[in-house]
Write a structure and sequence with these properties.
This protein is mainly α and 67 residues long. It has five helices and no strands.
Length: 67
Protein backbone atom coordinates (compact mmCIF):
# COMPACT_ATOMS: atom_id res chain seq x y z
CA UNK A 1 0.00 0.00 0.00
CA UNK A 2 1.47 3.37 -0.94
CA UNK A 3 1.73 6.24 1.50
CA UNK A 4 -1.36 8.07 0.17
CA UNK A 5 -3.51 5.01 0.76
CA UNK A 6 -2.05 4.51 4.25
CA UNK A 7 -2.70 8.18 5.06
CA UNK A 8 -6.26 7.87 3.76
CA UNK A 9 -7.05 4.71 5.70
CA UNK A 10 -5.54 6.03 8.92
CA UNK A 11 -7.31 9.40 8.61
CA UNK A 12 -10.66 7.68 8.17
CA UNK A 13 -10.02 5.31 11.08
CA UNK A 14 -8.98 8.10 13.45
CA UNK A 15 -11.77 10.42 12.29
CA UNK A 16 -14.42 7.75 12.75
CA UNK A 17 -13.01 6.86 16.20
CA UNK A 18 -13.88 10.44 17.18
CA UNK A 19 -17.29 10.14 15.47
CA UNK A 20 -16.36 13.12 13.31
CA UNK A 21 -17.63 13.88 9.85
CA UNK A 22 -15.24 15.08 7.19
CA UNK A 23 -16.66 18.54 7.80
CA UNK A 24 -15.80 18.40 11.51
CA UNK A 25 -12.24 17.27 10.78
CA UNK A 26 -11.90 20.03 8.20
CA UNK A 27 -13.11 22.63 10.73
CA UNK A 28 -10.71 21.35 13.39
CA UNK A 29 -7.78 21.33 10.94
CA UNK A 30 -8.59 24.69 9.34
CA UNK A 31 -9.09 23.10 5.94
CA UNK A 32 -11.99 22.86 3.50
CA UNK A 33 -14.24 19.80 3.64
CA UNK A 34 -13.68 19.01 -0.01
CA UNK A 35 -9.91 19.00 0.58
CA UNK A 36 -10.30 16.42 3.39
CA UNK A 37 -12.52 14.38 1.07
CA UNK A 38 -9.88 14.53 -1.65
CA UNK A 39 -7.15 13.34 0.70
CA UNK A 40 -9.34 10.47 1.93
CA UNK A 41 -10.11 9.48 -1.69
CA UNK A 42 -6.41 9.68 -2.65
CA UNK A 43 -7.01 12.31 -5.31
CA UNK A 44 -5.08 15.01 -3.42
CA UNK A 45 -1.40 14.94 -2.53
CA UNK A 46 -1.24 16.87 0.74
CA UNK A 47 1.86 18.79 1.72
CA UNK A 48 3.61 18.01 4.99
CA UNK A 49 2.03 21.20 6.37
CA UNK A 50 -1.44 19.81 5.67
CA UNK A 51 -0.51 16.44 7.18
CA UNK A 52 0.60 18.31 10.30
CA UNK A 53 -2.72 20.18 10.51
CA UNK A 54 -4.63 16.91 10.18
CA UNK A 55 -2.44 15.18 12.78
CA UNK A 56 -2.90 18.01 15.29
CA UNK A 57 -6.66 18.10 14.71
CA UNK A 58 -6.91 14.34 15.27
CA UNK A 59 -4.53 14.38 18.23
CA UNK A 60 -2.40 11.83 16.41
CA UNK A 61 1.30 11.43 15.76
CA UNK A 62 2.73 11.36 12.27
CA UNK A 63 3.46 7.65 12.71
CA UNK A 64 -0.25 7.02 13.33
CA UNK A 65 -1.19 8.79 10.10
CA UNK A 66 1.59 7.59 7.84
CA UNK A 67 2.42 4.19 9.33
Amino acid sequence: MDIRHRLSANMKRLRKAKSWSQEELADQAGLHRTYISGVERCVRNPTITVVEKIAVALGAGYDELLG
